[in-house]
Amino acid sequence: MTHELSTTTLALLNILNDGQRHAGTEIAKALGVSRMAIWKVIQRLKNYDIGIKSEHLGYRLESPLFLLEKSKIQKYIHKDVTIDIFESLSSTNDHLKNLASITFPQICLAEHQINGRGRLGRSWGSPFGRNIYCSMSYVFQKDISEMAGLSLAVGILTVKTLETLDQRLKPSLKWPNDIYLEEKKVGGILIDLIAEANGTCKAVLGIGLNVNMKDIPLKNVEKWTCLEEVMDQKLDRNKVVGKMINSLYKGMETFANRGFASFLPDWKRLDFLDNKKVTLTSGQEVYSGIAKGISPQGHLILELSQGLKQFSYGDTSLFKD
């Protein structure tokens, strides 16, 4: 079910963030709503496993939880933007894909995703209020055949945003769409392309980034980390996503005018796989070789026993002897 992030939810959590016990009647009076309205919000939030305790004299939040807010995000964005923030969505990419055709960039953020998606239909863990689940729609005056390298460009822009946050962050990119920190996955990119009329193309740029989830276990996923774990402190997600959106807007203008070519030098610097022995699964085939960067179209180049070969899609992992 889709729930927009309400001012009542924000205000309620801001009250509970002091870690003290607050009576429902006290909260209702402070927010100017009914006691039943507070109870309904509390019950909904409990479904996200965020650690709200119902005690005899009220409610208590086990650890602070600061949610995304438009006004705080917009401070970091140097353009007029349309931002929608949801409490819960199936997925931010799906939401923008299903909107009627639009001609201006639009941002969708969610505190929780029911069916967060990775590549190839994989699920993306989406705990409430901890990470960044962000999608941006952008209409290019290009044919869909001219969009090669877009996901790599989005990854580069995201990583360069992380580099501006703190010098301790040394992120890299694993082809085709994974963001790495300390040789562990911290985020990923998912691009949906929709051919529009008159040779234009609508792109939905999805970014999932692990931020403040050091204490949350994830099962059945590859090695992962989060910004909090690497930096040993919680981060202001509003700042992270605001700077990221600002970088995306600028970068998409560059991609629209110059394509992927201008991003190639950054990929070389950030390439996690460069000159490493790699296993690539492409369709039903599995290849092992030495990664030799990417082509101007964003294709992975592998040095195989029979020579160099380019791949436009596939999953990569470091070769295990």
Task: Provide the spatial order of strands within the biggest beta sheet.
Answer: 1-4-5-6-10-9-8-7
**Would you tell me which CATH topology of the largest domain applies?**
BirA Bifunctional Protein, domain 2
Instruction: List the total number of helices.
Output: 9
Roughly what is the average pLDDT, rounded to an integer? 90
Quick one: CATH superfamily of the largest domain?
Answer: Bira Bifunctional Protein, Domain 2
Query: What is the CA-atom radius of gyration, in angstroms?
Result: 21 Å
Structure description:
It is a single chain. Helices cover 28% and strands 27% of the residues. The protein is an alpha+beta fold and 321 residues long. It contains nine helices and 15 strands. The protein has helices at residues 7-16, 24-31, 35-46, 70-74, 92-97, 150-165, 227-231, 237-258, 264-270, and strands spanning 3-4, 52-55, 58-61, 83-88, 106-110, 132-140, 172-174, 178-181, 184-195, 201-209, 277-282, 285-294, 300-304, 307-311, 315-318. It has three domains: 3-61, Winged helix-like DNA-binding domain superfamily/Winged helix DNA-binding domain (Arc Repressor Mutant, subunit A); 70-269, 2-Layer Sandwich (BirA Bifunctional Protein, domain 2); 273-318, SH3 type barrels, CATH 2.30.30.100. A hairpin with a 3-residue loop joins strand 7 and strand 8. The chain has an eight-stranded mixed beta sheet. Strands 14-13-12-11-15 form a five-stranded antiparallel beta sheet. Helix 2 packs across helix 3 and helix 6 packs antiparallel against helix 8. It is globular and about 75 Å long.
